[in-house]
Design goal:
heterodimer; A: alpha+beta; 5-stranded antiparallel β-sheet; B: alpha+beta; Phosphorylase Kinase, domain 1; Transferase(Phosphotransferase), domain 1; Methylamine Dehydrogenase, Chain H; 6-stranded antiparallel β-sheet
């Protein structure tokens, strides 16, 4: 579009060209924007993910899972997705074991309870609510981690997407974001970190929080404490939105505005994920980086 | 600002400090009734505004008598008084009195303010035997944070109240707080040092050094709450000695959580306190959620229901269980006296009625000058909306208690004969029917090319517009209520006492919210809240994202009437006969209106007018 405008104006008189207002950065960005995915007959989820150990750690303690499915046919069309990011706790033994166990246990619990209902010959919604199933999955992960890797812990952010409805279960300081068109974004989870708590209580300002020394101290993690109390939220995913799950290796290093810009300016979800990981590494890559991006198209 | 001449006081200069006598007519307008307070500079009176001869409108008259011989001091005093007037004139908040007028005469200046019916908190503390209940203090504390946040966020400059203390807090007849005495409030310029002013005992250390910031008000609020919970007057104690008088040591019934919040507000170092009134309010709300205090709020004496006069009423010959609709200036309402009535919306006068053979409990629907409604005689009636003349009927084999819904030339309704009917309006005949497991009394919802409807069997059906079943869910008991769609999710309660949230395309349950008893009310939505009534007597507000309770409001009987949201309020009736208007965000009662019988139907609200029917046979039109 930019080139087109230039061509158009070059044929005009010089005076007219003088009057032409240069395009603002926002307008230029529009031309680079990720092309809207083509409209499809059936609604479905598309997702991509990426992960990196970073530049300063010797061990990858992050785990992720991305599961996207569509069932289409005469009876009905259904989209189902399960996306998980877990960040094993540094300084603990077996952080990578904890995050891996959490992802596997939660995924198997949720898929067994939910996805098999999809595959049933007479599809019927499960008689438990998603909230209850996610609570059970977290409790199961807590139990298994305490048995298999005692003393360790992990963050756990789980998004179950059914059609356009997202339900997130969350413990720790990995995050779920909704990136809206036009550049604004919402953090859909609440960090269970000491620094966020101090900020919520008004003890420190967001600016102070950004440079707070013990930024990675969590007050809630799966595997720690007697029981795990997951935050569970449900919200809908508009066709123009991106759902992003990531560990603090991304959001703690790359500013939110830059994250939103990279996603908007990438041609595909895969490219966006790779560029996000690259951006975190270019900023020093102090921690493991995990990211999942999801869109609903239909 | 209007300046008026004052009728000269009937006494000389040497007696200028004398009070105005009851019966004195100030400025030819304000009839002094009695002294309600006095300070160093003058008195506060209750007076009647004689510009409203037919209603006893009361005002507070705040007087300032300037007796200083020094002209510079006199000028400063007058400026301070004017500043209070100017600050008040820019404010608009339910917890701040309105200013009506301001004028000076010779050495006296007067502020005419909204009169607050009620009592100040200091008097309440002193007159209450024992300690005030925690939930009561918490309720006021949250409101005080609200009003402080309003003042501190004032543009262009924040306003610092500077004198928060129990005697400056009025509790009105609704049990809500009103801040009085803005005499030393001032706008705050960052970096500016002020003079020490305030009340010893309540003021923070830095205020003694001449600093007055929003954090000083937070401290003084902490001191006020400490006083209210412990009955220990800080003016009688050494300054900043709150930590030596831990709240729970004096009053063990206070929760540790609330004590911790107050201790934070009372931190000696301003940087350790809550950094804003909003942050403190959030902390108090967390206490309330944790201790469940908000749901146990004592029902304060409220605006007496007799104070609200209906704009008009219309009396039917039997109970009104149906909800009205408004169309082209007319209100249409069904009654158990078998009639559908058309009334003039302006004055409630009768326009026409149509008699059926059974009770009319359905809310009508209008489509292109035709009005549709069901009757317990088993028929769906279609009338000319202007004349009330019958156009056609459709018969079912059971009472029709499900209200018709119209979309795309289809009218959809259920019947006690277990069927859902889908009629083509142009052809006046059924396109298809759907057999349910039991009677359908739920009003169908048509959205996104789907029909959603509940059933007395506890089944909930999702059909496409051709009648094919897309999915089915089951509650443990009947679903009489109708679903609402917000975003991609459906919300409806069942008689099993659960409010369900379901993904609309698949019927997968997102969360369930348990109430103590069943519900037949159709939910309403505002922002992030879903409102639903229950037979347990409560109206619940549930967070749409988490499925957790945000607040609840207790009535004296079952809440069977569906709530309606209008602007920032939620309106509903209860079987206790009362019609309620609550603040949608926090469940605070705004007003209530007593009818002569149980209310089981939903209100209609349009153009700031509420139309609500009651079992006392009457349809009321009230100002929202």
């Amino acid at each position: 579009m930019f080139n087109f405008l230039r061509k158009w104006f070059s044929r005009k008189t010089p005076e007219a060209e003088v009057e032409t207002r240069p395009l603002s950065p926002e307008e230029i960005r529009v031309s680079h924007q990720m092309a809207p995915l083509p409209r499809r007959e059936i609604g479905q989820l598309v997702a991509a993910c990426s992960q990196s150990i970073g530049r300063q750690r010797e061990l990858n303690e992050d785990s992720l899972l991305a599961f996207t499915s569509t069932i289409a046919g005469n009876k009905s069309n259904s989209a189902f997705g399960l996306y998980i990011v877990a960040d094993g706790m540094g300084g603990h033994q077996f952080g990578e074991v904890a995050s891996n166990l959490a992802v596997r246990v939660v995924a198997s619990t949720i898929l067994r309870k939910l996805f098999t209902s999809f595959l049933d010959v007479n599809p019927k919604a499960p008689d438990q609510s998603l909230r209850e199933i996610i609570e059970q999955a977290f409790a199961e992960a807590q139990r298994v981690i305490q048995r298999e890797a005692p003393g360790s812990g992990t963050t756990l952010t789980v998004a179950v997407v059914i059609e356009q409805q997202v339900t997130v279960g969350h413990v720790g300081d990995s995050r779920a974001y909704l990136l809206h068109p036009g550049g604004h974004h919402e953090v859909m989870t609440r960090d269970h970190s000491l620094v966020k708590r101090l900020e919520e209580l008004g003890h420190i300002t967001p600016e102070e929080a950004a440079s707070y020394p013990n930024r990675n101290v969590l007050y809630r993690a799966v595997g720690q404490g007697d029981s795990v109390d997951a935050d569970i939220y449900t919200f809908s995913l508009a066709p123009t939105d991106y759902l992003m799950l990531c560990s603090d290796g991304l959001w703690g290093v790359v500013p939110d505005e830059k994250i939103a810009r990279i996603v908007r300016e990438s041609a595909t979800l895969e490219q966006a994920c790779q560029r996000l990981v690259d951006a975190a590494n270019e900023a020093g890559g102090p921690d493991n980086i995990s990211v999942i991006l999801v869109r609903w198209v239909g | 600002m209007v300046t008026q001449s004052v009728t000269p006081p009937s006494f000389g200069d040497e007696r200028a400090s004398q009070r105005l006598a009851p019966g004195f007519l100030l400025a030819n307008r304000y009839l002094i009734q009695e002294v309600i307070g006095s300070g160093g500079m003058g008195s506060v009176y209750r007076a009647r505004d004689m510009h409203f001869p037919n209603v006893p409108r009361l005002v507070a008259v705040k007087e300032m008598i300037n007796t200083s011989p020094d002209p510079l001091v006199r000028q400063t005093i007058v400026q301070n008084f004017e500043r209070e007037a100017n600050i008040l004139a820019t404010l608009n908040h339910p917890s701040i009195p309105k200013i009506y007028d301001y004028f000076s005469f010779e050495n006296r200046s007067y502020l005419i303010l909204e009169y607050i019916h009620g009592k100040d908190l200091e008097a309440i503390i002193n007159e209450t035997p024992g300690f005030l209940p925690e939930e009561q203090v918490l309720h006021w504390a949250i409101q005080l944070c609200d009003v402080l946040a309003y003042l501190h966020n004032h543009k262009p400059d924040p306003i610092i109240f500077r004198d928060m203390k129990p005697s400056n807090i009025m509790i009105n007849l609704s049990g809500d707080v009103v801040l009085v005495d803005f005499g030393i409030a001032r706008t705050f310029q960052v970096g500016q040092k002020g003079t020490m002013i305030g009340t010893e005992g309540y003021s923070p250390p830095e205020q003694y050094r001449g600093e007055a910031t929003p954090l000083a008000d937070i401290y003084a609020l902490g001191a006020t709450l400490h006083h209210a919970l412990t009955r220990r007057d800080p003016r009688l104690e050494p300054p900043f000695s709150f930590s030596e008088r831990p709240i729970r040591k004096i009053n063990p019934s206070v929760s540790p959580e609330l004590e911790a919040v107050i201790n934070t507000a009372l931190e000696y170092e301003p940087s350790k306190r809550y950094q804003s009134a909003e942050a403190m309010k959030e902390a108090l709300l967390n206490v309330a959620r944790k201790t469940g205090a908000l749901s146990r709020l004592p029902t304060a004496a409220t605006i007496s229901s007799s104070a609200i006069k209906p704009l008009w009423t219309f009396k039917c010959e039997d109970e009104i269980r149906a909800s009205p609709i408004l169309y082209q200036g007319k209100v249409f309402i069904g009654s158990y006296d078998y009639n559908l009535y058309a009334l003039d919306a302006i004055n409630g006068s009768f326009v026409w009625k149509y008699p059926t053979e059974g009770g009319v409990v359905t809310r009508p629907a209008v489509y292109e000058n035709e009005i549709f409604f069901g009757s317990e005689d088993g028929n769906l009636y279609v009338l000319n909306v202007r004349t009330g003349k019958l156009l056609w009927t459709y018969s079912t084999n059971g009472p029709v208690r499900s209200s018709p819904r119209i979309a795309e030339e289809l009218v959809v309704f259920g019947s006690d004969d277990h069927r859902l009917y889908v009629l083509s309006i142009p052809h006046s005949r059924a396109l298809w029917t759907f057999s349910a497991a039991d009677a359908i009394r739920s009003t169908p919802l048509i959205a996104q090319e789907r029909i959603y409807v509940g059933c007395e069997s506890g089944d909930f059906y999702c059909l496409d517009l051709r009648g094919e079943l897309k999915w089915r869910q089951q509650a443990r008991r009947a679903i009489t209520a109708s679903p609402i769609l917000v975003g991609q999710a459906l919300y409806f309660p069942s008689l099993d006492g659960i409010l369900y949230a379901m993904e609309a395309r698949t019927g997968w349950m997102l969360w369930r919210f348990r109430m103590a008893k069943g519900s037949i009310t159709t939910p309403a939505n505002a922002e992030n809240l879903i409102f639903v009534g229950s037979a347990d007597g409560h109206l619940y507000a549930v967070d749409i994202r988490t499925g957790r309770e945000a607040w609840r409001f207790r009535t004296e009987h079952q809440v069977s009437g569906s709530p309606t949201v209008y602007k920032d309020a939620v309106y509903f009736g209860s079987a206790d006969g009362m019609f309620y208007c609550l603040d949608a965000r926090n469940g605070r009662l705004r007003w209530q209106f007593q009818t002569g019988g149980p209310i089981t139907s939903a209100p209609l609200i349009y153009d700031d007018i509420v139309y609500i029917g009651s079992a006392d046979h009457i349809l009321y039109a009230l100002l929202a």
